[in-house]
Automatic annotation (TrEMBL):
InterPro entries hit by this protein: DES1/DES2, FA_desaturase_dom
Domain Fatty acid desaturase stretches: 18-235
A cellular component annotation (GO) from this entry: membrane
Name used for this protein in its record: FA_desaturase domain-containing protein
GO biological process terms on file: ceramide biosynthetic process
One GO molecular-function entry: sphingolipid delta-4 desaturase activity
Domain of life: Eukaryota
Keywords: Lipid metabolism, Membrane, Oxidoreductase
Family membership: Belongs to the fatty acid desaturase type 1 family. DEGS subfamily.
Length: 310
Protein backbone atom coordinates (compact mmCIF):
# COMPACT_ATOMS: atom_id res chain seq x y z
CA UNK A 1 0.00 0.00 0.00
CA UNK A 2 2.90 2.35 0.71
CA UNK A 3 4.37 1.70 -2.74
CA UNK A 4 0.94 2.07 -4.34
CA UNK A 5 0.56 5.53 -2.82
CA UNK A 6 4.02 6.50 -4.04
CA UNK A 7 2.93 5.33 -7.50
CA UNK A 8 -0.20 7.50 -7.21
CA UNK A 9 1.99 10.47 -6.26
CA UNK A 10 3.90 9.97 -9.49
CA UNK A 11 0.69 9.52 -11.48
CA UNK A 12 -0.96 12.68 -10.12
CA UNK A 13 2.02 15.03 -9.99
CA UNK A 14 0.71 17.09 -12.94
CA UNK A 15 -3.00 16.34 -12.53
CA UNK A 16 -5.81 18.87 -12.30
CA UNK A 17 -6.82 19.83 -8.76
CA UNK A 18 -10.32 18.44 -9.27
CA UNK A 19 -8.90 15.04 -10.18
CA UNK A 20 -6.51 15.15 -7.23
CA UNK A 21 -9.33 15.75 -4.73
CA UNK A 22 -11.56 13.12 -6.35
CA UNK A 23 -8.77 10.54 -6.32
CA UNK A 24 -7.99 11.45 -2.72
CA UNK A 25 -11.57 10.73 -1.66
CA UNK A 26 -12.29 7.69 -3.83
CA UNK A 27 -8.91 5.97 -3.83
CA UNK A 28 -6.17 7.56 -1.74
CA UNK A 29 -8.45 8.08 1.22
CA UNK A 30 -9.40 4.40 1.30
CA UNK A 31 -5.74 3.36 1.13
CA UNK A 32 -4.63 5.84 3.79
CA UNK A 33 -7.50 4.90 6.07
CA UNK A 34 -6.46 1.29 5.66
CA UNK A 35 -2.94 2.35 6.67
CA UNK A 36 -4.23 4.02 9.84
CA UNK A 37 -5.90 0.72 10.71
CA UNK A 38 -2.69 -1.11 9.86
CA UNK A 39 -1.03 1.16 12.43
CA UNK A 40 -3.78 0.18 14.87
CA UNK A 41 -3.01 -3.49 14.28
CA UNK A 42 0.76 -2.92 14.54
CA UNK A 43 0.29 -1.00 17.82
CA UNK A 44 -0.66 -4.34 19.37
CA UNK A 45 2.71 -5.79 18.30
CA UNK A 46 1.03 -8.15 15.85
CA UNK A 47 3.79 -8.02 13.22
CA UNK A 48 6.88 -9.10 15.15
CA UNK A 49 5.25 -10.09 18.42
CA UNK A 50 5.60 -8.69 21.92
CA UNK A 51 9.25 -9.79 22.10
CA UNK A 52 10.30 -7.17 19.53
CA UNK A 53 8.45 -3.94 20.39
CA UNK A 54 11.02 -1.68 18.69
CA UNK A 55 10.66 -3.54 15.40
CA UNK A 56 6.90 -3.07 15.61
CA UNK A 57 7.29 0.66 16.29
CA UNK A 58 9.50 1.17 13.23
CA UNK A 59 7.22 -0.96 11.08
CA UNK A 60 4.41 1.33 12.22
CA UNK A 61 6.46 4.32 11.08
CA UNK A 62 6.79 2.67 7.66
CA UNK A 63 3.01 2.23 7.45
CA UNK A 64 2.70 5.87 8.53
CA UNK A 65 4.56 7.28 5.51
CA UNK A 66 1.68 7.75 3.00
CA UNK A 67 -0.57 9.23 5.70
CA UNK A 68 1.44 12.44 5.55
CA UNK A 69 1.38 13.32 9.27
CA UNK A 70 3.18 11.45 12.08
CA UNK A 71 0.60 9.46 14.05
CA UNK A 72 1.94 5.94 14.58
CA UNK A 73 3.80 6.24 17.89
CA UNK A 74 1.35 8.75 19.39
CA UNK A 75 -1.55 6.47 18.53
CA UNK A 76 0.13 3.60 20.35
CA UNK A 77 0.66 5.77 23.43
CA UNK A 78 -3.01 6.73 23.75
CA UNK A 79 -4.49 3.48 22.45
CA UNK A 80 -3.09 1.61 25.44
CA UNK A 81 -5.43 3.68 27.63
CA UNK A 82 -8.40 2.74 25.44
CA UNK A 83 -7.86 -0.97 26.03
CA UNK A 84 -7.04 -0.52 29.67
CA UNK A 85 -10.49 0.90 30.43
CA UNK A 86 -13.04 2.07 27.90
CA UNK A 87 -14.69 5.39 28.68
CA UNK A 88 -11.55 7.14 29.93
CA UNK A 89 -9.63 7.48 26.69
CA UNK A 90 -9.45 10.41 24.31
CA UNK A 91 -11.82 8.76 21.82
CA UNK A 92 -14.70 9.99 23.98
CA UNK A 93 -15.97 13.43 22.86
CA UNK A 94 -15.75 16.29 25.32
CA UNK A 95 -18.80 17.66 27.11
CA UNK A 96 -18.68 20.74 24.86
CA UNK A 97 -18.88 18.55 21.74
CA UNK A 98 -21.79 16.61 23.19
CA UNK A 99 -23.74 19.79 23.95
CA UNK A 100 -22.92 21.64 20.75
CA UNK A 101 -23.36 19.05 17.99
CA UNK A 102 -26.96 17.93 18.45
CA UNK A 103 -28.78 18.68 15.17
CA UNK A 104 -28.30 16.86 11.83
CA UNK A 105 -26.43 19.80 10.30
CA UNK A 106 -24.17 20.17 13.32
CA UNK A 107 -23.53 16.44 13.55
CA UNK A 108 -22.61 16.34 9.85
CA UNK A 109 -20.22 19.22 10.47
CA UNK A 110 -18.77 17.32 13.45
CA UNK A 111 -18.20 14.23 11.30
CA UNK A 112 -16.50 16.35 8.64
CA UNK A 113 -14.09 17.79 11.21
CA UNK A 114 -13.68 14.54 13.12
CA UNK A 115 -9.98 14.18 12.15
CA UNK A 116 -9.23 17.46 13.89
CA UNK A 117 -11.21 16.53 17.01
CA UNK A 118 -9.51 13.14 17.03
CA UNK A 119 -6.05 14.69 16.70
CA UNK A 120 -6.35 17.66 19.07
CA UNK A 121 -8.69 16.30 21.76
CA UNK A 122 -5.82 14.50 23.54
CA UNK A 123 -3.90 17.78 23.79
CA UNK A 124 -6.80 19.24 25.76
CA UNK A 125 -8.15 16.46 27.96
CA UNK A 126 -5.16 14.13 28.41
CA UNK A 127 -1.84 15.84 27.84
CA UNK A 128 1.22 13.62 27.59
CA UNK A 129 4.77 14.73 27.00
CA UNK A 130 6.23 13.68 23.64
CA UNK A 131 8.50 10.65 23.78
CA UNK A 132 11.76 9.98 21.96
CA UNK A 133 10.07 7.58 19.54
CA UNK A 134 7.45 10.22 18.70
CA UNK A 135 10.24 12.63 17.77
CA UNK A 136 11.86 9.96 15.59
CA UNK A 137 8.46 9.26 14.00
CA UNK A 138 8.05 12.98 13.22
CA UNK A 139 11.56 13.31 11.75
CA UNK A 140 11.08 10.29 9.46
CA UNK A 141 7.65 11.53 8.36
CA UNK A 142 8.80 15.07 7.61
CA UNK A 143 11.76 13.69 5.65
CA UNK A 144 9.39 11.54 3.57
CA UNK A 145 7.04 14.46 2.95
CA UNK A 146 9.91 16.68 1.83
CA UNK A 147 11.10 13.91 -0.48
CA UNK A 148 7.63 13.61 -2.03
CA UNK A 149 7.52 17.37 -2.67
CA UNK A 150 11.04 17.42 -4.10
CA UNK A 151 10.39 14.52 -6.48
CA UNK A 152 6.71 14.86 -7.40
CA UNK A 153 5.67 18.34 -6.26
CA UNK A 154 3.25 19.80 -3.74
CA UNK A 155 0.15 18.36 -5.46
CA UNK A 156 1.20 14.83 -4.59
CA UNK A 157 1.68 15.68 -0.92
CA UNK A 158 -1.72 17.39 -0.80
CA UNK A 159 -3.22 14.26 -2.39
CA UNK A 160 -1.82 12.16 0.48
CA UNK A 161 -2.77 14.48 3.34
CA UNK A 162 -6.20 15.41 1.98
CA UNK A 163 -6.96 11.72 1.46
CA UNK A 164 -6.03 11.01 5.06
CA UNK A 165 -8.31 13.66 6.53
CA UNK A 166 -11.29 13.28 4.20
CA UNK A 167 -11.43 9.51 4.77
CA UNK A 168 -11.59 10.03 8.54
CA UNK A 169 -14.68 12.22 8.21
CA UNK A 170 -17.75 11.76 6.02
CA UNK A 171 -16.55 8.61 4.32
CA UNK A 172 -17.89 5.04 4.46
CA UNK A 173 -14.59 3.68 5.79
CA UNK A 174 -14.81 6.10 8.73
CA UNK A 175 -18.03 4.51 9.93
CA UNK A 176 -16.07 2.37 12.37
CA UNK A 177 -15.32 5.44 14.51
CA UNK A 178 -19.03 5.55 15.32
CA UNK A 179 -19.93 1.87 15.13
CA UNK A 180 -17.35 0.61 17.61
CA UNK A 181 -18.37 2.24 20.90
CA UNK A 182 -21.32 4.59 20.41
CA UNK A 183 -24.26 3.15 22.31
CA UNK A 184 -26.79 1.75 19.85
CA UNK A 185 -28.24 -0.70 22.37
CA UNK A 186 -28.67 -0.30 26.09
CA UNK A 187 -26.09 -2.07 28.29
CA UNK A 188 -23.68 -2.74 25.42
CA UNK A 189 -20.52 -0.64 25.04
CA UNK A 190 -18.69 -2.31 22.16
CA UNK A 191 -20.08 -3.36 18.77
CA UNK A 192 -18.77 -5.41 15.89
CA UNK A 193 -19.33 -4.82 12.19
CA UNK A 194 -19.56 -7.75 9.79
CA UNK A 195 -19.36 -6.43 6.25
CA UNK A 196 -17.17 -6.03 3.18
CA UNK A 197 -15.17 -3.08 4.53
CA UNK A 198 -13.36 -5.53 6.80
CA UNK A 199 -11.52 -6.78 3.72
CA UNK A 200 -9.50 -3.57 3.45
CA UNK A 201 -9.46 -2.43 7.09
CA UNK A 202 -7.64 -5.34 8.72
CA UNK A 203 -10.92 -6.66 10.16
CA UNK A 204 -11.25 -3.74 12.55
CA UNK A 205 -15.00 -4.35 12.37
CA UNK A 206 -14.56 -7.45 14.54
CA UNK A 207 -14.33 -5.13 17.49
CA UNK A 208 -15.78 -7.20 20.31
CA UNK A 209 -13.44 -9.97 19.27
CA UNK A 210 -10.55 -7.50 19.17
CA UNK A 211 -11.21 -6.19 22.68
CA UNK A 212 -11.42 -9.73 24.02
CA UNK A 213 -8.13 -10.70 22.33
CA UNK A 214 -6.19 -7.50 21.54
CA UNK A 215 -2.99 -9.32 20.60
CA UNK A 216 -4.65 -11.49 17.96
CA UNK A 217 -3.82 -10.04 14.50
CA UNK A 218 -6.77 -8.64 12.60
CA UNK A 219 -6.51 -11.33 9.93
CA UNK A 220 -7.36 -13.98 12.56
CA UNK A 221 -10.29 -12.22 14.25
CA UNK A 222 -12.94 -13.91 12.03
CA UNK A 223 -11.59 -17.22 13.34
CA UNK A 224 -12.21 -16.05 16.92
CA UNK A 225 -15.87 -15.50 16.11
CA UNK A 226 -16.03 -18.82 14.27
CA UNK A 227 -14.55 -20.71 17.21
CA UNK A 228 -16.78 -19.08 19.85
CA UNK A 229 -20.00 -17.91 18.12
CA UNK A 230 -22.02 -18.21 21.32
CA UNK A 231 -20.16 -15.19 22.75
CA UNK A 232 -20.70 -12.90 19.74
CA UNK A 233 -23.77 -13.90 17.74
CA UNK A 234 -26.13 -12.75 20.49
CA UNK A 235 -24.62 -9.25 20.63
CA UNK A 236 -25.96 -6.31 18.64
CA UNK A 237 -23.76 -5.75 15.56
CA UNK A 238 -23.66 -3.64 12.40
CA UNK A 239 -23.85 -4.63 8.75
CA UNK A 240 -23.27 -1.22 7.12
CA UNK A 241 -20.94 1.59 8.14
CA UNK A 242 -22.76 3.92 5.75
CA UNK A 243 -26.01 3.26 7.61
CA UNK A 244 -24.20 3.87 10.89
CA UNK A 245 -23.16 7.32 9.68
CA UNK A 246 -26.66 8.02 8.37
CA UNK A 247 -28.26 7.05 11.67
CA UNK A 248 -25.71 9.09 13.60
CA UNK A 249 -26.54 12.24 11.64
CA UNK A 250 -30.32 11.94 11.33
CA UNK A 251 -31.44 9.99 14.39
CA UNK A 252 -32.42 12.28 17.29
CA UNK A 253 -31.23 9.56 19.66
CA UNK A 254 -27.66 9.62 18.37
CA UNK A 255 -24.85 12.13 18.64
CA UNK A 256 -21.44 12.71 20.21
CA UNK A 257 -23.10 12.35 23.62
CA UNK A 258 -23.88 8.65 23.02
CA UNK A 259 -20.63 7.39 24.52
CA UNK A 260 -20.19 5.99 27.99
CA UNK A 261 -17.77 8.16 29.95
CA UNK A 262 -16.12 7.21 33.23
CA UNK A 263 -14.18 9.20 35.78
CA UNK A 264 -10.51 8.40 36.20
CA UNK A 265 -9.68 6.75 39.54
CA UNK A 266 -6.12 8.11 39.48
CA UNK A 267 -4.84 11.54 38.36
CA UNK A 268 -3.42 11.79 34.85
CA UNK A 269 0.31 12.40 34.59
CA UNK A 270 2.09 14.58 32.06
CA UNK A 271 5.01 12.30 31.36
CA UNK A 272 6.57 10.35 28.53
CA UNK A 273 8.18 6.96 28.50
CA UNK A 274 11.39 7.32 26.50
CA UNK A 275 11.50 3.76 25.30
CA UNK A 276 14.01 3.87 22.44
CA UNK A 277 17.03 3.29 24.67
CA UNK A 278 15.24 0.52 26.53
CA UNK A 279 14.21 -1.19 23.29
CA UNK A 280 17.70 -0.69 21.83
CA UNK A 281 19.45 -2.37 24.77
CA UNK A 282 16.93 -5.20 24.66
CA UNK A 283 17.73 -5.66 20.97
CA UNK A 284 21.48 -5.74 21.66
CA UNK A 285 20.89 -8.34 24.33
CA UNK A 286 18.80 -10.40 21.91
CA UNK A 287 21.46 -10.48 19.19
CA UNK A 288 24.11 -11.31 21.78
CA UNK A 289 25.99 -8.02 21.41
CA UNK A 290 26.57 -7.68 25.16
CA UNK A 291 27.97 -11.21 25.36
CA UNK A 292 30.22 -10.58 22.35
CA UNK A 293 31.52 -7.37 23.92
CA UNK A 294 32.21 -9.15 27.20
CA UNK A 295 33.99 -11.97 25.37
CA UNK A 296 36.11 -9.48 23.38
CA UNK A 297 37.13 -7.63 26.55
CA UNK A 298 38.06 -10.90 28.27
CA UNK A 299 40.05 -11.96 25.21
CA UNK A 300 41.92 -8.63 25.23
CA UNK A 301 42.67 -9.02 28.95
CA UNK A 302 44.05 -12.52 28.38
CA UNK A 303 46.27 -11.28 25.53
CA UNK A 304 47.55 -8.40 27.64
CA UNK A 305 48.35 -10.75 30.51
CA UNK A 306 50.18 -13.12 28.16
CA UNK A 307 52.27 -10.25 26.83
CA UNK A 308 53.19 -9.23 30.38
CA UNK A 309 54.30 -12.78 31.17
CA UNK A 310 56.47 -12.89 28.05
Amino acid sequence: MVLFQVFMCWLLQDADWTLIFLEAYLCGGVINHAMTLAIHDISHNTVYGNSYPLWNRFFGMLANLPIGVPVSVSFKKYHVEHHREDGLDTDVPTELEAQLFTTPVRKFFWLTLQPFFYAFRPLIIYKKAPSDLEIINAIIQVAFDVLIVQIFGIRSLIYLIFGTFVAMGVHPSAGHFISEHYVFKRNQETYSYYGLWNLCTFNVGYHNEHHDFPYVPGRHLPEVRKIAPEFYDTLHSHRSWTKVLWDFVFSPNMGPYMRLKRKASTPQKFEARHAFGEYYHAFLHYVGFNELTRFALQWMDVNNNNKKIE
